[in-house]
Amino acid sequence: MTYQENKMTQATRRIKISLFSLLALFSVSASAQCTFRNTAFKSGERLSYNLYFNWKFVWVKVGTASFDIDQTRFLGKKAYKGSLITRGNKRADRFFVLRDTLLCYNTLDMAPLYYRKGAKEGKRYTVDEVYYTYPNGKCHVKQHRLKHDGTYSRSQHTLNECVYDMMSIFMRARSFNPTGWKKGYAVNFPIVDGRKVYAAQLRYQGVVNIKADNGHTYRCLKLAYMDKDDDSNKWEKIVDFFVSDDENHIPVRLDLHLKFGSAKAFMTNVTGLRNAEKAKVK
Questions:
Q1: Closest CA to 40 of 281, 257, 244
Q2: For residue 114, which of 127, 134, 133, 97 has the smallest C-alpha distance?
Q3: Any residues with CB less than 8 A from the CB of 21 and at least 6 apart, and which?
Q4: What is the 3-state secondary structure of the chain?
Q5: Which residue did the predictor score with more confidence, 235 or 272?
Q6: What is the average pLDDT value for the chain, to the nearest integer?
Q7: Of 74, 50, 70, 75, whose CA–CA distance to 62 is shortest?
Q8: Hey, CA dihedral for 255, 120, 101, 48, is it positive or negative?
Q9: pTM of the predicted structure, to 2 decimals
Q10: How far is CA 63 from CA 3, 12, 99, 262, in A?
Q11: Alpha-carbon distance 142 to 167, whole Å?
């Protein structure tokens, strides 16, 4: 992998971490069957974003992302399907090919059922899958990863607490209630992928107005997504993101902190909202 490809890999991974795990504001005990009320979205919601990287102090558009939610069926039962697609543009393709598709199924009361992530980054293609069941009041996950060399890794865990993939936590946590939060308030939560379960943290940083790429300005909650550095075991800020301060909790903008520079994602369009856009300032 070239130096530029390596830099793009770091950037796109952090964009996806941000888009899929932002708003992870709570965890729920497995004894409650990992369910939660949905007050934020309905079937038919569509979100879209422009992705930008900062190359030598110039902001360059390098791709787009879209997130759709639909009601469907999974293994014969009613479910919400969330799908996220990220695509690099022709300018980005000269340095790095980005073609990612992510999918999750949750029950209508937000318990995770299945997660899949197919990621083409440069010349590498990997697939993660997670299957959820809830035996005896616990959360059981089967994890599969197809590596870029064609080999597989498989694992499974049974946990006393609920765990979430990055897609299901994004859908679930949009129904949070931040009333009473003060700057610095932090929430810890577990995330699962095709290989392991790991810890993440969210810190509340106040309210600010943000202009999206659709020309509108929104009153937003500013939140910092953190994870632990494997070497130092210290919390490291990955992204600041800005979520509409209303019942929709739409991600309006994301600011990514990269080792080699900066990246941003701006909302371009939203349709099919469940609630009124009370956070729209103008």
A1: 244
A2: 133
A3: 166, 169, 170, 191, 200, 225
A4: CCHHHHHHHHHHHHHHHHHHHCCCCCCCEHHHCCCCCCCCCCCCEEEEEEEEEEECCEEEEEEEEEEEEEEEEECCEEEEEEEEEEEECHHHHCCCCEEEEEEEEEECCCCEEEEEEEEEECCEEEEEEEEEECHHHCEEEEEEEECCCCCEEEEEEEECECCECHHHHHHHHCCCCCCCCCCCCEEEEEEECCCCEEEEEEEEEEEEEEECCCCCEEEEEEEEEEEECCCCCCEEEEEEEEEECCCCCCEEEEEEEECCEEEEEEEEEEECCCCCCCCECC
A5: 272
A6: 85
A7: 50
A8: positive
A9: 0.81
A10: 20, 10, 10, 15
A11: 16
Q: pLDDT (tens digit, 9 = 90+) per residue, 159-184?
A: 999 998 888 888 887 898 888 999 99
Half-sphere exposure of 61 (CA within 13 A, CB side): 12
276 contacts: CB under 8 Å, gap ≥ 6: 246, 247
Residues 6 or more apart in contact with residue 11 via CB below 8 angstroms: 53, 256, 258, 260, 261, 263
Q: How far apart are CA 189 and CA 17, in angstroms?
A: 14
- How many Cβ atoms sit within 10 Å of the Cβ of residue 157? 14
Please list the residues that pair with 100 across neighbouring strands.
86, 119
Task: Tell me how long the chain is.
Answer: 282
Lowest-confidence pick of 75-79, 90-94, 144-148: 90-94
- Which pLDDT score is estimated for 53? 84
Angle, helices 3-21 vs 166-173, to 10°: value is 40
**Is the pLDDT at 5 greater than 60, yes or no?**
no
Check residue 248 and give left, alpha or beta (phi > 0: left; psi -120 to 50: alpha).
alpha
Structure-token pair, residue 44: 């038919």
State the pLDDT at residue 14.
54
